[in-house]
Design a protein that fits this description.
Strand order of the largest sheet: 1-2-3-4-9-10-11-14
Radius of gyration: 22 Å
Mean pLDDT: 93
Low-confidence stretches: none
Number of domains: 1
CATH topology: TIM Barrel
Bound molecules: flavin mononucleotide
Number of strands: 14
CATH class: Alpha Beta
CATH superfamily: Luciferase-like domain
Strand content: 5-15%
Number of helices: 14
Shape: globular
Length: 456
């Protein structure tokens, strides 16, 4: 059942006019989403493992009143790529904890795998981050499409990874709820630290996990840290519909594709018995910005000139379910018979779907590789701040998004032009916050302080 768009709040085209505003977060962790970004003179790639770089980046983001910074994560080192690109980086919860100490308002969201982690440990990490940040922790639920070689296991099939992911989220919510709001009493006179009547085991026994609980970290300021989810396949959307507060997705090139995905997610949230207005759909967008459009085009040309097409070919092959591409000329198209059906892809299924659309549109191998290394498949608009602001707002007003995950293509200007040029334009138009609404990430997202019971 597709949801009636009018059940989602202001009609399309009237959102800002009726007081709705964008939710914006930015990816941090590297020196730019474009594979060529590190080779620019002032990329600060030397500081990729220094807190100083991330302190600057998070300060720019908080000054612009972004809702959150997001730290992606992967569980393997790709030797093909690391020779020509600064691959991987600091572990999310570690870096976000350090950034909690140098920020006050901005949300701190990190990816953690449900396939290669244990829920009790992850609940401890997130509740701890939520305490030390005063309620700004968020978790991006990912099921990991690779990395099994580092855990002595086979990569479970796509459907099983999401089945485990759903149970993982269920256990996490139960653990967060295992301490009632008033459990910590600290009554020195009576010698009572906690009211154990409000601290309960969860006794979860499921197909993938058996967890007694309660959690051994007291209830954190948000009660439940924010859950984001980044898988857009059928399985992924089903998990998002039950558990996600934020739904990350690959930014589509067309408005229509964005609107279609948006409606699909909101319908499933509604079918899962949740209010679809409380779940924010945030596509990734990796703009290449310049002071003027010509300057942006020049940066685009420069960045594309700095990439290693052959390591890009290997990276693209992995996105395409390990399709054999070695014998193809760069200006050739990929023969359809080399490509498995979308449902046969056990890795990143929906990302593969995005590429299938481009291949069907006749994109050559070169363009596909450039797209892959520029943004890993996310939408890459190129232009001046005004043009980027127009595009983000158009997609928001068309109900193709509730906001965006900004993936700055290069540092520092690829981010500072966003925070110091694009954001002020959106604020002037009333489309983005000029102050943080509350203290916790949940409050700043306008989400319920008392979330619904754990979905069965
Ligand atoms: C904005 C965004 C951020 C993501 N971050 C991560 C990440 O940090 N780690 C990871 O393993 N996968 C990440 N993914 C990939 C997803 O977890 C997932 O594999 C991908 O979207 C394909 O999902 P599907 O197989 O359900 O279609 C991200 C995806 C998006 C759209």
């Amino acid at each position: 059942m597709t949801i009636d768009i009018d059940d989602l709040g202001a009609p399309a085209g009237q959102r800002v006019a009726q007081g709705e505003q964008l939710v914006l977060a930015t990816l941090i962790g590297g020196v730019g989403n474009h594979a060529g970004a590190w080779r620019r003179p002032n990329s600060r790639v030397e500081e990729k493992y220094d807190l100083a770089l991330f302190r600057d980046v998070v300060t720019w983001a908080e000054r612009a009143k972004l809702h959150a910074v997001f730290l992606a994560d992967g569980l393997r080192l790709d030797l093909d790529t690391v020779s020509s690109q600064p691959f991987a980086g600091l572990e999310p919860v570690t870096l976000l904890s350090a950034l909690a100490a140098v920020t006050e308002h901005i949300g701190l969201i990190g990816s953690i795998s449900t396939t290669f982690s244990e829920p009790y440990n992850v609940a401890r990490q997130l509740a701890s981050l939520d305490h030390i940040s005063g309620g700004r922790a968020g978790w991006n639920l990912v099921t990991s499409a690779w990395g099994e070689e580092n855990f002595g296991r086979e990569l479970p099939p796509h459907a099983e990874r999401y089945e485990r992911g759903a149970e993982f989220a269920e256990v996490l919510l139960k653990l967060f709820d295992s301490w009632g709001p008033g459990a910590v009493r600290i009554d020195r006179a009576a010698g009572v630290y906690a009211d154990v009547g409000q601290v309960a085991p969860i006794d979860h026994v499921g197909k993938h996990f058996s967890v007694a609980g309660p959690l051994n970290v007291a209830r954190s300021p948000q009660g439940r840290p924010i859950i984001a989810q980044a898988g857009s396949s059928g399985d992924g959307q089903a998990v998002a519909a039950r558990f996600a507060d934020l739904v990350f997705t690959t930014g589509r090139i067309t408005h229509d594709d964005s609107i279609e995905f948006y409606r699909s997610v909101k319908s499933q949230v509604s079918a899962a018995g949740r209010d679809p207005r409380t779940v924010k759909v945030l596509p990734g967008v990796s703009p290449i910005i310049g002071e003027t459009e010509a300057a942006a085009r020049a940066v685009e040309k420069e960045l594309n000139g700095l990439i290693d097409l052959e390591s890009g070919r290997a990276k693209l092959s992995r996105q395409l379910g390990n399709a054999f591409l070695d014998d193809l000329e760069l200006d050739e198209q990929i023969p359809a018979e080399r490509l498995p059906a979308e449902e046969a892809v056990e890795g990143r299924r929906s990302r593969y779907g995005v590429y299938l659309t481009l291949i069907e549109d006749g994109w050559t191998l070169r363009r596909l590789i450039e797209w892959e290394v520029a943004s890993s498949g996310h939408f890459v608009p190129v232009g001046a701040p005004e043009q980027i602001a127009d595009l983000l707002l158009e997609r928001f007003e068309a109900r193709g998004a509730d906001g965006f995950i900004l993936l700055p293509s290069y540092l520092p200007e690829g981010l500072t032009l966003l925070t110091e040029a694009v954001i002020p334009i959106l604020q002037e138009r009333g489309a983005f916050q000029t102050e943080y609404a509350g203290q916790t990430l949940r409050e700043n997202l306008g989400l319920n302080a008392q979330p619904a019971p754990v979905p069965a």
